[in-house]
Amino acid sequence: MQINITKLIPKNWLIKDLSDKIEVTYKLKRGNYNRKAFILPKEISLNKEFIEGVGLFLGDSDLNRKEKNHLTYASIDKEIAKKALNFLQDYFLIKLKDITFLVNYRDKNNKLKQEWSNYLKIPYNKILIRYSKRHNNEALQIQVNGVVFRKFFELVIKTVLSKPILSNKKLRRALLRGLFAAEGNVGIDYQENYITQICFSLNIKENNLINLIQKSLELEGVKNRLSKYERYNNVQIVVTNWNNYWKLWQINLFDICKRKKENFFNIMKNLNIYIKLKSDFRREFFSSLNLDQKEIARIIGSWQSNVSRTISGIHLLRIEQFSRLLKYSDYKIKDIIKSTEEIRISSLTKFQPDYEMLNYFFKIKSF
Asked: Which of 107, 101, 94 lies closest to 78 in space, CA to CA?
């Protein structure tokens, strides 16, 4: 899919053909302040990277603002800020001279400007800084100055959302990734070391965006619910259950934001994941070890009584315990996975086995 930029420009705007690009502006009888021209590409391809950028700006820009003099994007994550900047430069040909960079901070950092300058690969003097009590973390604002680009960008977003993005698996997932990087959260109970929920947090008035996210999740087979907090003008699209979390992991939902991905992965790799084997295979497996129960208990770091209960099908072993025992058996990980009857995560969540999920858990937990 592509967008023909020339056809997208309103008829009363001024267009100058520059071979493979166009220069765009518009004028009114009065009030032409900040209506500088912008050079734009003639076409934009709706590829995965472009749609991820659209998702970022749908979530963390000021598109809902009534005043149209500029377009602003904000983020506390350096890699996301850089992706947003690259999006503007690569797909819209925006020059640094048309951008204002402002870092809001609360805690003093003498290297603040240099760190952001180095990471974004922009001149040191382009970074402005401002003290702010309400910012817990450093937050960068990327502001494209010019009403022409602001209004043009809104036209692009409107056009993109009118396309059949959701029917295209790659683009639908790219949109979800961008939106989650901007508006997503991984809810963690640090005391229990457990994920309580994964959610998208939106303004209560963003009905179209809410519907878009929910429809996208449904197409991925991810069950979700809507929680409204009218007092705070907030809506959360909430996802629970590890069946759903695994589906989100498979579509690389967390990949754009390193911080959120690491939070999720660190919990996932430390989960207590128990396996219930089919009864016939369970007996065959423990028999194949040629070890007495006391020796098995020593290998898996448990008690002999627990081994006895495990062989009887009463007690369950964790994935890493099975990994240790496999060294003493001719059976392979794939045999364990194929013979798994049920998975239990911690003490509450039980569900039917998913081959890819179990294979991945064995991979990150084996040692």
From this structure: 101
Question: What's the distance, Cα to Cα, between the start and end of the chain in Å?
Answer: 46
Alpha carbon distance 8, 23 (integer Å): 13
User: What are the pLDDT digits (tens) for 228-270?
Assistant: 988 888 999 999 988 899 999 999 999 999 999 999 999 888 8
Pick from 349, 354, 318, 324: nearest CA to 337:
354
Question: Residue 317: what are its φ and ψ, rounded to 5°?
Answer: -105, 155
For 142, the enclosing helix (H) or strand (E) is strand 139-145
Task: Report the distance separating Cα 201 and Cα 59, nearest Å.
Answer: 9
Higher pLDDT, residue 135 or 223: 223
Of 152, 159, 210, 190, which is closest to residue 46 (Cα–Cα)? 159
User: Which residue is associated with the tokens 């028999």?
Assistant: 287
Separation of alpha carbons 213 and 181, rounded Å: 13
Q: Report the 10 Å Cβ neighbour count for 275.
A: 23
